[in-house]
Structure formats: structure tokens, C-alpha cells
């Protein structure tokens, strides 16, 4: 069995387990009380705060514990926005933030605020220049994750923090994925994180607000945690979380382990496209989290793939629409403009054995093949093999194809009715149909599947076909693809 | 050592500890994931929800877990109010609710809603008739605790629930203190509770919303816990909390234990006034929580009393102003109109040894005496000993005294300047001064201590003196007391 989804939740660190057990006996009482059990609880809480502050790189009185990373984000965003109410109500964030940031931004918008979503490039990175251009005087807050939770790409946080400081706008950095590996660099104003991502127990988030940052906690008043997080403190869990973080920071092997995992991820990044046809490895190959890699497989049903990998003993997650409750693909993959079908995220826990990664690389091709076979995927051939020449020649080929297309406005075209069919079927039907029209001819896919909007253009980019756009249709939408070669 | 503050937090139940340990190994993963670790976590969460629902007396899909009782209340109040937005924005609650309810009500008011606070009698109970009269058609929600957390008085929840149902108004019952002893009776719409009050770990609250109750969760959207509680589920703690609650319900001794503790509390209620002079035992003597009793001692500094009791090995809490961060006395004691100085709340944990209660009764008089001696309290004598005759004769005596007072509008009066002095000093100075004026004469106490507003009238009631009201003063207020005997 190999658990490769540490970006969702890491198993409890042994040090955290020990600390939790001790703190259940010593830290269960109310730290606001004056008697010995209360004082003991208060001492544990204070010590945990000092430990966490040191790991974050700030002062203990700048750190509060929340019941989750999500609540740290919600409290941080709403408090910072309210603290800057006089400056304006404009919230800036990247398009690839964690859903907790996006949901906080939606709530802000619903309450009359405005928000600006910054686009990312195909690796998932925000351009610092875009942030600089968007930092208007009425911007109340900017949010930028330290590294992406789905594809691992690191954001230019230090550079953006400097720009924000210059503009007088506070920057909130969601460091949920990167804090296990080191503190957030630069002149940030707020940092949020989640303990169960670094081997702490669930039930603990962290919100650091640097002195000088205007902050007005929202929601009903509560005297605990400096009024920034309501409810009785979960001291045993907080103590355990701090112990795990301290253990990671104190371990001289953390840096070495990061390098080792980085090497294993490099191996996956290099080998998967060689072992499996029609795969897109996404995210930045270098400026990324050490332990995380994501790829998408054409003509694959993500849920079936996860199921097969689970049967083979691998626990991974996916941003495919079929693996989400809402049947929409991951907003991160969408913002990057990459394929979402057959998506797999591998995030290696601290200490992952090399042999497990090799076994994964052995199992994966077989599993993908089996899923594709069941779906009746077009065999490699017309349109199914991507030659480097075709790729490099696509620039000029494109011009020719368009020329041909405009001459043949009424040229041969095929309509594929994929209504009612879910990812990856519309893309599979497109791949089958493209060989049936002449070069310059079009295939129009009718689909009401949300994933098609993202995956048909992504398929075109991968297969060097021309994506000619989307038209409204009676049901769903009509996606037009023009054959290039 | 005796921990007598289980109403603040109960130590972890052994069953909860065991369940927590097991669930740390089995329930750390994301229950929304499809792989085995996720499915296992989901199963544990589902089972815990079933257990909790059974103990609450509702359906599993009516229960969500929150990170604390406070957050259960905040989410319950805001969600129920928003769900009833069309009916109106009027919120009804008793004056003695837990601070989490009051703070939720304040937030509602700050957002433009209205609220009506229902008064309580001297035992801390709301009159069902008052609730009935206050249930206007535009009332969106009523909140009533099942039993008070500071004085133990049970509220007429079942009767009020029936009235609310008839009026079509949902009732939220804060059952934090009573749920360990049994489910909330009657036709309630929402119930909230907190696991660390019943021997579960910290980090778990419970919110039950009965089907048919209009409910619109507030705050940023989150898909977990039916959208009613944001953030990654704390499954190990939830499992432990459910295990502790099941253990309490399954234990045929719970009823017997309640009766045993009820007897011990009766002993405290009966003996404390005999062992210690000038004590007021507050709350309903019969319709109350089994394990909780509160009394206040005249001329005693609550913080010093707590400190001395702690030194003697007893952990208790207090509603005295000097033991709160804000230097205001407990709002519960204030609403009841009872003394707040020298206040002690004893809440006995499950299994408290009889001998410990007896030792407490042995230690208490000595400790109170020591604190009073240090404060230079007036020795028993004029005004300091309360004879039953004086008490029973106060009705007629009062009329005479008032007559005398109105004849002597310019009668001898003393002004005591207690400005800058904190509870219990103003009351001690009043007690010293009252003997120096003739019957019918007045003592005017100048005080800027918030506790004086509550404790001077309470002293008058206890000592059968006439409280003649409060006047504005340059600093603080002037409290006028007329000597009766």
C-alpha cells in the first residue's frame, strides 16, 4: 500500500502523536482559568505558539490557532479586508488559489466588495508584473498562495510581497502546502497554514498577522485567540501540531529529504510521458514543491483511473470533473488551460520509499491502458501519435489551415452529438471523428459536460489540431475543431 | 487535588481516549477522497454521526460536527436567522444564555437585526409566559439554553418548544451543559452542544438542525459537513467525542450517578450557608443540573478566594468581576439580581468522591475567613448578622423606614468615596458605614466599579437594607442605601 496524497492530508507524525497523548492529560482544561489545570493548559498553549511562531518566522503574539486551514483563510481574508475598509473593498487573488480563498472572495463579493482574479500561465504561475499592474490604491488585500496545491508550482511570493509593501497593500500568503518545507520568505502581512498537511493532527490551522497589519476580526465576538478565532482552544491538537512542525524544522534531514523527493518527482515527470501515450505532465518542472507532481491522461476517466490505482495499492487524488461532487473540473487546471481528464496528482509523504515510486511507474501504464480499453479509445494512428515535427511545424501549418478553412466555409464538416455524455467520452468521440474529415474540415462536438469546455481546447493543443471556438447551442455548447493534418 | 470545574471542561473520558488513539491511525485521511484511507475515514465519520444523532434524538443527516460548541452556536444562530429572513429579523433569547449566544445576537444586531432579551427570575429561569408573549409574527428565531452554565437552573425548554412550534418560530436549544445527562426533550428545531463538556476531546461541537427547519449557512461556502461547518473534518476527535457520549448513554449508571451527584450538590447547598456567614446560594435548588452549584460570599474577593481554594487543592470557577478579563461581573448573576462578589461555581465531574466534597466543605470556611480577614471585613455585629426575625419582619419594617426617610429628606447621611476601588471593597465600606448612620439615614457610595451596580442592591436584599437607587456622578455612579434597622 502506498499513500501518495499527502497534499490532502498527511498521516500523523510520530512526534505529534506523542505530544498529543501527553497534552490530552495535561492540556484539556480551560487556559483562561486561574487554577492549576488551567495554568498548565495555558503554559502548553503559550509554548506551542512560540514554537509555531519560530517556524513561521514571526512573533508569538502574531500567531493564532484556528480549527482548520480553511478557517485560518476565512478569518484572515475577512479580517484583513475589514481592517482596510477605508482604503477600499477591492480584493486581488490568483485564479489558482485554494477553494477556501476563492470562497472567502465570493463571500466578499456577495457582501458588496469587488475582486480581481489574476490569470496564470500554463505552468500555473502568476506574473509579478500582473500583480504590480493590478495594485490600485483602492486594493484592500492581495492573496497569493506560496505554492499550488494541485500542480506544485511555486508562486513569486517574495517578489509580490515587495510589490505589495511598496503599494501599501497587505499580502496574505496561503502557505498550506509549503510550510512543511520552510518558512514563507519576504515581507508578507498574513500567512495561513494547516497542521494536517505537515503531520500535525486535524483540527489545527494557523493564522499569522504581522504587527502593523490592520486587522478587524469578523463574525461574533469571542475573547479567545486574541479575538481572531472563536471557540474553546484545542490545546492537545495545537501542542501536537507545533511539535510536528518543530520536528520538521529541527531535522537536519528535512532539506535532504526535500531533495530526495524532488528526485523521485523528477523521475515521475520524466518517465510517465514515456511510459504512457497521450499524457500531459503539468506545472512548473523546476520552481515547484519538492514532493508533488500532476499529470493528465487523454481518453481516461479519472474516477476509473483512481479506482484502479486504489486497487493496485496507490492512493492518489485527481482534479478531473468525474472525481468532484460538482462534475466540474479543477479550477486550477482550467485556469492553466491544461487537460483535466484522466488527471492524477501524486504527492509523496516524507520518507516515501524509492521502490514504491518505481512500482507506481510500473503499474500506471497497465492501469491507463485498461481504462482506455474499456472506453474503446481510438488506437494510436491518425491523430493519436504526436510527432515532434508536427509540433514544431504547427505555426505555419496553422496559417495554411485557416486559409483553407475560410475558403471552405461550407467545407465538409461532421457533427458529433455527445449530449448527456460525461468526460472523457466527448473527447474520445472527437478523436475518433477527426480522422473522418479532410484537412481543413471541421468536427463540431455538441456537449453539455463542463469538462468539454476545458478538455476539447486542451486536446487540440496536445494533438496539434485547431480549436476554432465555441458556439451557443440549444443544449450545452457546440465546440468546433478544424483538422490541421 | 479535586477538579470541580467540569462545566468549563471535563477531562477526557477513558473511552474517548481509546477511540481517539484508534482513529488517529484510521481516520486521518480526507473523507471526501475515493481511496481506501479516505473511505475508512468516511466510515468512521458516518458512524460517529449516527452515534451522536442517537444520543441527541434526531436523524444522522440532521447532525453536523463543528470545531467547538461556540462555533455550533454561531453557525446555528446565523443559519437559522438567515433561513427565516422573510419572516423577520427579530431574535429572542434569554438574558442568561452562554456568551456565544449573546455574541451571535450582538453580531445579528450589528448587521441590522433586532433582538429581545428575556428577563429571568431570581433563580435564573425564564417564564414560559414571557416567551409566549414575545413570540411575534416577525420573530425569526428563539434561543433558550437547556440549563444554565453558571447556576445550573433548568429552563422550561419543552414548554417553550411547544409554544414556539405553535407560533411557527424555530427554537435553538443550547444544550452544552445538559447533553451529558440526557437528550433535550420536546419539539426543538436546533440543538447545539460541545464535546469537551461530556468527556470528549476539545475541538468538537455539535449542531443538529431538524428537517423542516429553514436554514441558510452563512460565511464563505464550504462543501464539508453539509455546508454547515467549514474546514477539514477533525475525524479522530469526532470519533472520540461520539464514543464518550455513547458510553455515557449506554452506562446504566448515568442515571444513578446523576442522583448521587445531585445528593452531593444538595449537601453543598445546605451546608455552605451554615458553615460560612453571609453567603447566598443561587440558582434553583430542585429544577437544576445534577452536578452544579453556585454561591456568593459577601465581603470576599473572588480572585483571592479562587487562589486560596486552588492552593488547598480545589479547582473551581467564579463569575466575580475580578476573575474576568473585563472586570465586569457575570451577566448571568447580574440578570438574576444576585450577589456577584466572592462567587464560586462548583461543578462536579462524573465519579467525584464523596470525601472530596466533604473536604471542600471543611476547607471553605477557613479559606473564606482568611480572605475576609485580609480585607478587614466588619466583624459580625451591626448589620453583619442576619436574624430570621429581621428577615421576616422586613415587610412592615420597610414601610416604617421609608416613612422615616421621607420625613428626613435632609436627614443624616454619609458619603463613602470608593472611587478607584474594586469589588468587594465598595461593599465592605458600605457595610462599615451603615452602622454609623441612624435608622432612616443614608449611605451614598461613590464607585466606578462595575460590580458595585450589581452588588450594592444585592447586599441590600441580603442585609434587609433599603436600596434607594443610583444617581449619576462625576465619575462612576452614586449608590444610595437607606438604613432600615
Please give a structural write-up:
Two copies of one chain form a homodimer. With 485 residues, the first copy, chain A, is of the alpha/beta class. Chain A folds into three domains: 10-250, Aspartate Aminotransferase, domain 2, CATH 3.40.640.10; 253-375, Aspartate Aminotransferase, domain 1; 388-482, TusA-like domain (Translation Initiation Factor IF3). Chain A has 15 helices and 16 strands. In chain A, strands 2-8-7-6-5-3-4 form a seven-stranded mixed sheet, with helices on both faces. Chain A has a four-stranded mixed sheet with strand order 13-14-16-15. A three-stranded antiparallel sheet of chain A has the order 9-10-12. In chain A, α9 (302-311) crosses α11. At the A-B interface, α1, α2, α3, α4 and α7 of A face α1, α2, α3, α4 and α7 of B. Chains A, B: This is Aminotransferase.
Percentage beta strand of chain A: 15-25%
Output mean pLDDT of chain A: 91
Most extensive interface: A-B, 64 and 64 residues
Spatial sequence of strands, sheet with the most strands of chain A: 2-8-7-6-5-3-4
Region (Disordered) (chains A, B): 383-407
Domain UPF0033 (chains A, B): 416-440
Catalytic activity (chains A, B): (sulfur carrier)-H + L-cysteine = (sulfur carrier)-SH + L-alanine
Cofactor (chains A, B): pyridoxal 5'-phosphate
